[in-house]
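Incident review: delayed structure delivery

Summary: a single-chain prediction request sat in the queue longer than the usual turnaround. Root cause was a stuck worker, restarted by the on-call engineer. No data loss occurred. The affected request and its eventual output are reproduced below so the record is complete for anyone auditing the incident later.

Affected input:
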Amino acid sequence: MTHPPIALTIAGSDPGGGAGLQADLTTFTRLGVHGATAVTAITVQDTRNVIDFSVLPAARLRAQIEATLADLNVGAIKIGMLGSVENVETAAALLGAHPHIPAVLDPVMVAGGGGELATEAVIDATREILLPRATLITPNGPEARALAGHDTPERQGAALRERGARNVLITGGHEGGEDEPIRNRLFREDGHQRMFELPRHPAGFHGSGCTLAAAIAAFLARGRDLEPAVIEAQNFMNHAVQTGYAPGQGQHVPNRLCPASHD
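Output delivered after worker restart:
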């Protein structure tokens, strides 16, 4: 029997299912991809904010990844919250040992409600050793500023490329006014640049960055080239946000189970 393509998410656990590996798995399944997981951290959070988190030891993370890759034919990797410098080093070593597997890095630093998920040391390690190993990084505006040290998306994209990032998609949900579209900017390793405009929806969303990065990884696992994967993932993300809902007392979450335009 044939089986669906496989994607591995390396991320933290969100008990409410709005973000983290739960969001990734839902996205993978919705897009026809078998999801494998390597847990980096256990968080205590709700749809309003992160209350606390505990990071798993790097040896335990490495063992999860090695067991999965030895057993499954993984077609793409999505990396989210890592939580410690040691886990960043583990993820970088993984990508270095498996350069044939496309990897999407969502450099998670702050939760949607404002809670910090990465220390300065983790941000520095991500910048120095992990960015050059990923196929694509998907920072939002604040994350791009922290990693690149510049204010405008154009300068951020150029700086991240100079730091070794192969391809960069800077998402614009945190930038611009309420009446302006969201502008995502793709900076490819061949020098090509492209801006995408998406509708802006009024509700604040929990797990939108996870969903977009996971969707890109899913389409890469399904054999798409990078830019088509980005385009299809953004279409999926826009529809998921458009039909999003509030499962708790805080932010909305994307409706990752809704029928999408590609069905």
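Verification: Helices lie at 20-30, 58-71, 85-97, 120-130, 141-148, 153-162, 208-221, 226-242.
Action items: add queue-age alerting; document worker restart procedure.
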